[in-house]
Design brief:
about 270 residues; seven-stranded parallel β-sheet; five-stranded mixed β-sheet; elongated
Length: about 270
């Protein structure tokens, strides 16, 4: 039974998400931990991951280079950083391994590199691995298509005060999804914060507002504001476990897929 389990290598393994993924993998019957990786020179490199996570000895030592353990796994689960994720994808492709990327803040240039490298690897890339959020993406697409141009669209996202990128990758994905459904170019209509005498709101604007405070795990509110009514769609993450479970689900799903770039909509079968 154990030999048939998917063998995962977790990058960003000493971070918040990496730690939760490793902890949940321990309790899974489908996937097992084969390796753990952090950035070069990390202070915990060389230690058993169970020691710093309070899990007891696991036999998996934290490495500071993916190349040192890539041959031990079937799939890499990557929550490192947007720059490191591109390199990790290349290493996975070179070694015929699958990879799940949950890093945010990916630039347009990095996205092109990921699309190119994924031609030689099985890759799931998603700004948010939560099942609930990905259901919300589909709902927003359908709702925007039904409401059309008669409703103003505003997105408010809130996260903890240590989050480095703004707006969140999830908020951007929501805005892109709505813009596509409405036939708009987000580069032209996206507004990221407002101040001063800005005048009346242009009809096609899609507003994205950012909040950073305390230990908020993640909250996204999408408002469709019409004349005489408004619709609000809210997703609140109570812990990081829903993201971790989604990443593990994606890793297992990838095992029998062809090379290419996928997202959580593919994993969950939500695409039309």
């Amino acid at each position: 039974m154990v030999n048939d389990m998917v063998k995962a290598i977790v990058t960003g393994a000493a971070g918040r998400m990496g730690g939760r993924i490793i902890t949940l993998i321990r309790d899974s019957e489908e996937i097992t931990l084969a390796g753990a990786v952090e950035q070069k020179g990390h202070r915990l490199a060389g230690t058993d991951v169970g020691d710093y996570l309070g899990l007891g000895k696991t036999g998996v030592i934290l490495e500071d280079d993916l190349n040192k353990c890539i041959d031990r796994g079937d799939v890499v689960i990557d929550f490192s950083s947007h720059t490191a994720s591109v390199d990790n994808l290349r290493i996975a492709a070179q070694n015929n391994k699958a990879i799940v990327i949950g890093s945010t803040g990916i630039t347009p240039d990095e996205m092109e590199q990921i699309a190119d490298a994924s031609r030689g690897a099985r890759c799931v890339l998603a700004p948010n691995m939560s099942v609930g959020v990905n259901v919300m993406f589909k709902v927003l697409k359908d709702v925007a298509g039904i409401l059309g141009d008669g409703y103003d669209v505003e997105i408010v996202e809130a996260h903890h005060n240590q989050k480095k990128d703004a707006p969140s990758g999830t908020a951007v994905k929501m805005a892109e999804t709505i813009a596509d459904a409405l036939g708009r170019d987000l580069e032209e209509v996206g507004v990221y914060g407002r101040k001063g005498m800005i005048g009346a709101r242009p009809k096609n604007e899609i507003g994205i507002q950012t909040v950073r405070a305390g230990d908020i795990v993640g909250e996204h509110t999408v408002i469709f504001g019409g004349i005489g009514e408004r619709l609000e769609f809210v997703h609140r993450a109570h812990s990081r476990d829903n993201f971790a479970r989604g990443a593990i689900r994606a890793a297992v799903w990838l095992m029998d897929k062809d090379n290419g770039l996928y997202d959580m909509q593919d994993v969950l079968g939500l695409k039309n």
